[in-house]
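Dear support,

Our group has been running a series of protein-ligand predictions, and this particular one with glutamine is the one our PI (initials K.S.) wants archived with full inputs and outputs. We had some confusion internally about which version of the output was final, so please treat the block below as the authoritative record. The input we submitted was:
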Amino acid sequence: MTSPSFRPAPRAVLVLEDGTRFEGRAYGATGRTVGELVFATGMTGYQETITDPSYAGQIVMMTAPHIGNTGVNDPDRESRRNWVAGFVVRDPSRIVSNFRAQDSLDSDLVADGIVGISGVDTRAITRHIRSAGSMRAGVFSGSDLDLSPSEQLDVVTRSEGMAGRNLSAEVSTDHPYALPAQGERVGTVAVLDLGVKQSTLNYLAERGFEVQVLPQTVTADHVLSLAPDALFFSNGPGDPAASEAHVELLRTVLRAGVPYFGICFGNQLLGRALGFGTYKLPFGHRGINQPVLDKATGRVEITSQNHGFAVDLPVEGRHTSPEGFGEVEVSHYSLNDQVVEGLVCHDIRAFSVQYHPESAAGPHDAVYLFDRFRDMVASATHAKGEGK
Ligand SMILES: NC(=O)CC[C@H](N)C(=O)O
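Confirmed final output from the archive:
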């Protein structure tokens, strides 16, 4: 595992849908892959990134130049596999050096068939995407290099874009399962698994929730038949505008008075359930040092983010839900570009954030949101007990 190999890897090429090409070396599995090319700015946490199911369908490029130094290990996996459609790095570590390492990143990518490329100028590619926007791309190595440049470009331009894409079925659990509550029990939370990360489930269980994880195919009737004390929608890949069935489920369960918390995709779906729109950002927010303002406290949080879509609402003032859920406010917004980063409902028990309070990887500034959820559910249960 730690023996250095100084043989140059075989060639590979990264082809962008606008025809731009970058020559490099094969990294991870060899072959061909297509997806939306996005960049992630975290200097650490590559394993949490590639095992985040929200990245399904995306070729992730790390802007940090040196990747793989600490290898991979089982405790840091956020889900059952690596989900990225492809992986682009500048300078992969030739050795693994960490006491927690169980394997090298390269061989872990090979095990999951993730086609990657290294030795490309990731700074130039990032600047290109920053100006031109995220776009479809392909990585080709091995016998796929026999395709001519125009045939490779054809493969890319014939592939599906991210707008309008529903990917929940690819990443969700196919069977329900549960995590027991830890410490003082607050109640049960039904978690719709749209691509949930393990750290999120752990935080919920640690806050006293019995966590019931449900496949994304579940119906509103089934959720209500479980009589959960709360509902949670996870992060996940794809375009929120293509998840109408989940939006309908959310509306029904909210109308039944069940308290709600959503993260990332779960924030976008709350926005849509309330009757607002979502839109695609030019190149999205992906990294672990994204500044966000909590409007209620004036506090700035440094957050972990991974989103390419956002809720379409002015960050100031209150807005009336066209779906009859009362007054809604943007609770948090990005200090980089004023994009909506959180929603709070004033007339029903529901809130959500666009960023990742489970902080895997990333700073722990936003972990308080799990406490806020626990307190909201505890007060709802108390009110129910008093017949309010
Ligand atoms: N991490 C997420 O949940 C991402 C949500 C959505 N797929 C987006 O890209 O905006």
